[in-house]
Design goal:
The structure is a single chain. Helix content is 32%, strand content 20%. With 161 residues, it is an alpha+beta fold. It has a five-stranded mixed sheet with strand order 1-2-5-3-4. Helix 1 links the parallel strand 1 and strand 2. The radius of gyration is 19 Å and the shape is elongated. The two termini are 17 Å apart.
Length: 161
């Protein structure tokens, strides 16, 4: 049984096989309480999937956090892993990374592509074609230790009691 988080079932009293909590934990003041509740709902046979942006790639270079005013706490990979391990016995950590076109675009940006396309006057035409061409294959999910996920866009934890 999957947990229903709709208004019809706001008590979250029923056990379930899986919980999916994506891009939300950074918005709550009590993440430990929420993870404890998830652990009690999935029991020993279920799984919780929790994701959050990686502040190391979300925030501007050198900044401690992004400018998102709705984020209560933004996590570095080590912090997110520690939070998850404090509430679940089995934690698998993954990072979402750019691949294919997006990885190539990132390399071009590091080499100065922003200055080139602006000087050539092709910014809008380029991005009008490039952006709609991005698809799921331009991202890759990799499992790793927290130290290996520092460059990930997002962090994804697979949690089992």
């Amino acid at each position: 049984m999957a947990c229903d988080s709709s208004a019809r079932s706001s008590s979250f009293a029923e056990p379930c096989d899986a919980i999916v909590f994506l891009q939300t934990i950074e918005h709550v003041a009590n993440p430990g309480e929420i993870l404890d509740r998830f652990r009690s709902l999935v029991g020993s046979g279920g799984v919780a999937f929790v994701s959050t942006p990686n502040v190391l790639t979300l925030a501007p270079p050198g900044a401690e956090r992004s400018a998102n005013p709705w984020h209560v706490h933004e996590y570095r990979p080590e912090e997110f892993a520690a939070l998850c391990r404090a509430h679940f016995a089995d934690v698998e950590l993954y990072g979402l990374f750019h691949a294919r076109k997006l990885a190539l675009h990132g390399a071009a940006l590091r080499l100065g592509w922003d200055a080139v396309h602006a000087r050539l006057g092709v910014t809008k035409p380029f991005y009008d074609r490039f952006t709609p061409a991005i698809d799921v294959r331009d991202f890759v999910l990799r499992r790793g230790a927290a130290r290996d996920l520092r460059g990930a866009l997002d962090l994804v934890a697979v949690l089992r009691a």
